[in-house]
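Teaching assistant's notes for section 4

Start the section by putting this record on the projector. Ask students to predict, before seeing the second block, whether Methyltransferase domain-containing protein will look compact or extended. Collect guesses on the board.
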Amino acid sequence: MEGRQNVSEDRRGQAEAFDAIGQHYDEAFPHKEGQLAAGRRLAEALAPGSRVLDVGCGTGLPTALQLAEKGHSVLGTDLSAGMLALAEKNVPAAEFRQIDIADLATDGPAGIGRFDGIACFFALLMLPRPEIPGALRRLHGLLRPGGLMELSMVEADLDDAAIPFLGHTIRVSGYLRDELRQVVRDAGFEITGEDTYSYAPASSDVPPEHQIFLHCRRG
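Reveal the predicted structure now:
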């Protein structure tokens, strides 16, 4: 795992929360049906040996593992050192780096190159809304022409709202689905399909959330 990039004070708090949550994340979200389906879709759609970026990879489960088991070359990035330490153990065939989504770049000293595919599952939730369009444009620039991206968000009309999460407080943003589609298209992506799942964490009495999975292609 490479050294830490510059991280804003706001997102440092997010990273520390996920450092503390660690393995309890997978215990609280044991099924991940939508993420499993989208990860499988990406793994199978790409040519064998494709280079794939897993943004906000967390513990590496399930997505980085799915992609690596299909023989793809996987780079996972996350803000949380604790999550990445678990990912390295869970998916030794993949590479992991601690990089803020705001610092992802193709070229330069910290550049990570281009990719045939990107998995971005719930990572954009951690950004204030004004930063999400720029993050999507960065992901678009990291994809080779015709490259594929599987993207998921929780449907919610929120902007940098503080919420309790597994004993900690994190800040999250979201869109209603029509606005989400527009933001993704404005970043240069073609949306080729969409799935929605209703999901609630294990051992929780909170109402189920609606998870939106968009199947995207770089235009």
